Amino acid sequence: MQVEYINPFVTSLKNAFKTMLNCDARRGAIAVKEGNRAKHSVSGVIGLSGRAAGTVVLSFSEAVALKAASTMLMTEMTTIDEDVLDAVGELTNMVAGAAKAELEEHQLQVSLPNVITGHGHEIHFPSNVVPISIAFDTEWGPLTLEVGFAAVLAAATV
């Protein structure tokens, strides 16, 4: 995995939290992801295609998802409902959109996000990759950026 494919997501996550939510997302430890379970209970999932194929996941603790949605919707959210899931999807889309601008020079595209919720939900990365997990901490609680993708070999021209 190449750092120039990962850094745009790290930067755009930090920027989205700062500009959209007025909240600092501080990067913590980087580790090899073990197993398929998402770190937290609400995840925005983005597909990556082009010169590399794989998955990028923003996994939010319930507290962060609720507070982010409350800030975006300007009303206090107390339970994970459709409005909170939509807000997480929109925040994930903002992070992906900002990262996409940097990734286009590497011939990579990002998909629209999907949101998955539930304790212990699973995210399956391509079988030929070892995903990494980057912890973030905010004043509202933890979230995690999970990234796993592999280079795609170009088809030979005839």
List the defining traits of the structure above:
single chain; 158 residues; alpha+beta; Chemotaxis protein chec; 34% helix; globular
CATH homologous superfamily (4th level) name? CheC-like
Helix content: 25-40%
Q: Percent of residues in beta strands?
A: 25-35%
In CATH's first tier, which class applies? Alpha Beta
Succession of helices and strands: HEEEHHEEEE
Q: How many beta-strand elements?
A: 7
What is the CATH architecture assignment?
3-Layer(aba) Sandwich
Question: Measured on Cα atoms, how large is the radius of gyration?
Answer: 15 Å
The low-confidence parts are: none
Return the domain count: 1
Average pLDDT value?
88
Largest sheet: 7 strands, antiparallel
Tell me, what's the shape? globular
Could you please say which CATH topology applies here? Chemotaxis protein chec
What is the compact description of this entry?
With 158 residues, the chain is an alpha+beta fold. The protein has helices at 3-21, 62-73, 82-103, and strands at 26-32, 42-50, 52-60, 108-110, 114-117, 132-138, 141-151.
